[in-house]
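User: Quick sanity check before I run a bigger batch. Here is a single chain. Can you write out its predicted 3D structure?
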Amino acid sequence: MPESAGPTTTASAPSRVTVCRDCCCGTVKVPGDHTAQTARLRSAVPVRVSECLDVCEQANVIVVQPSAEARRAGARAVWLGLVNDPEATEDVIAWVSAGGPGVAPMPEILDLYAFVPHQGTERAPGRGPGRV
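Assistant: Done. Predicted structure follows.
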């Protein structure tokens, strides 16, 4: 039996997370072990680290993005704020591992962290909650 050569170019990109790490998120302004949180996420799910997403009042911010297939079916990114404890990080990992937005239901506990980013025009150029 031939061995698999890995993912093909037609494979769907998985659900992943973007972690804000800039002026407030991931700094001493917000309590917690940010290095450990990022490392734990990276050990379990695909992670991107972003500069400021301009929702500092929600620090630490994690954006859970749907897989490519789920996005094509209409799923959208879910913004989670105040994700400052290891239990919440584990809930995010469990959801993303199960498929994330549009594939697996969001754990009810994450409803406490979900928010809609502001879309104001007062952002600094090149910063703010655009498409992640």
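Confidence is low (pLDDT under 50) at residues 1-10, 121-131.

User: Great, the batch can go ahead then.
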